[in-house]
């Protein structure tokens, strides 16, 4: 049975297998090849973006959450 990748990486033209996405983001392999994979990855990136924006850009938590939420919404709109 051929499994169709569901991951979407708008910043890359590389063909990335869903299992690679699961490994990179430490997401359960059960999420691979499902529509829920992109949401799980986006949610993890949201949390990481908050931390990075506070640490590297000096944002307060509320501003970092707002900006990270905007980026997550934008990313999910592609799917």
Question: Your description of this structure?
Answer:
The chain is mostly helical and 79 residues long. Helix content is 59%, strand content 0%. The chain is elongated. The two termini are 24 Å apart. The mean pLDDT is 90.
Count of distinct strands: 0
Major β-sheet profile: none
Structural class: mainly alpha
Characterize the quaternary organization of these chains: single chain
In helices, the fraction of residues equals 55-70%
**Backbone CA Rg:** 14 Å
Order of helices and strands: HHH
Inertia-based shape: elongated
Q: Could you tell me the strand content as a percent range?
A: under 5%
Low-confidence residue ranges: none
Number of helices: 3
- Average of pLDDT: 90
- What is the CA-CA span between the terminal residues? 24 Å
What's the short version?
The chain has 79 residues and is mainly alpha-helical.
Write the topology of this structure.
Blueprint: H1 18-25, H2 36-57, H3 61-77
Helix pairs in contact: 2-3
What attributes does this structure have?
79 residues, single chain
């Amino acid at each position: 049975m051929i499994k169709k990748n569901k991951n979407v990486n708008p910043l890359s033209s590389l063909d990335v297998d869903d299992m690679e996405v699961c490994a990179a983001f430490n997401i359960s392999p059960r999420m691979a090849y499902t529509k829920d994979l992109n949401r799980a990855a986006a949610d993890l990136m949201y949390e990481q973006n908050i931390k990075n924006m506070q640490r590297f850009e000096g944002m307060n938590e509320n501003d970092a959450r707002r900006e990270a939420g905007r980026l997550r919404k934008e990313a999910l709109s592609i799917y």
